[in-house]
């Protein structure tokens, strides 16, 4: 995950905006490994590798949004047909009643936060250690670990990025 990759994808979107419009992009990324277990054994393992983006179009009457899921990576943003997508969002805006509470982006902000772990989390190693400790117990649970990221970009200059390593154990 790289914030520079996300922030460099804005040219196509900006070219399609009218002067009275604002646009926000919210990116959600996850690349985690999970293990479901019970009775001291692994019952299911898998990997979640997902990226989705939420696009919000604002004008003086309100806002309209779409969420595109099942993207494989940040580079999938390049495949978005901005003209078609913005045309659909404009149609929605025309059908919606005015929203006096819509908050149109206005202030450019910059924020970059990356919390790196010393090394990648090894879910198999964690489960092996837990299996020894829980040897004689009937324990069921779920273990998940991997990087997650969130990004925000808008046409008024806001750029925000958060990335961290997440580990969760529920039993």
Topology (elements, then pairings):
Elements: H1 3-7, H2 11-15, E1 22-38, E2 41-59, E3 62-71, H3 82-95, E4 110-115, H4 123-133, E5 141-154, E6 159-170
Parallel strand pairs: 4-6
Antiparallel strand pairs: 1-2, 1-5, 2-3, 5-6
Describe the structure.
With 171 residues, the protein is of the alpha+beta class. Helix content is 20%, strand content 46%. It has helices at 3-7, 11-15, 82-95, 123-133, and strands spanning 22-38, 41-59, 62-71, 110-115, 141-154, 159-170. The longest helix has 14 residues, at 82-95.
Write a compact overview of the structure shown.
This protein is of the alpha+beta class and 171 residues long. It has helices at 3-7, 11-15, 82-95, 123-133; strands spanning 22-38, 41-59, 62-71, 110-115, 141-154, 159-170.
Please report which band the strand proportion falls in: under 5%, 5-15%, 15-25%, 25-35%, 35-45% or over 45%: over 45%
- Globular, elongated, flat, extended or rod-shaped: what is the shape? elongated
Distance between the termini: 30 Å
Number of strands: 6
Largest sheet: 6 strands, mixed
* Number of continuous helical runs: 4
Helix proportion of residues, in percent? 10-25%
- Which strand order does the major sheet show? 3-2-1-5-6-4
| Poorly predicted spans | none
- Given the helix and strand composition, which structural class is it? alpha+beta
Search tags:
171 residues, alpha+beta, six-stranded mixed β-sheet, elongated
């Amino acid at each position: 995950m790289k914030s520079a990759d996300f922030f460099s994808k804005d040219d196509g979107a900006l070219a399609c905006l009218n002067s009275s419009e604002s646009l926000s992009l919210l990116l959600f990324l996850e690349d985690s490994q999970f293990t479901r277990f019970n009775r001291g054994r692994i019952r299911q393992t898998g990997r979640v590798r997902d990226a989705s983006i939420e696009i919000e179009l604002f004008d003086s009457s309100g806002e309209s949004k779409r969420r595109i899921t099942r993207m494989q990576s940040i580079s999938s943003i390049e495949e978005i047909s901005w003209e078609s997508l913005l045309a659909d969002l404009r149609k929605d805006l025309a059908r919606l009643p005015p929203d006096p509470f819509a908050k149109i982006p206005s202030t450019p902000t910059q924020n970059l936060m990356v919390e790196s772990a010393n090394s990648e989390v090894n879910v198999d190693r964690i489960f092996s250690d837990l299996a020894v400790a829980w040897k004689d117990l009937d324990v069921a649970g779920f273990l998940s670990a991997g990087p997650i990221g969130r990004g925000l970009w808008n046409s008024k200059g806001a750029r925000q990025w958060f990335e961290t390593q997440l580990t969760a154990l529920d039993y």
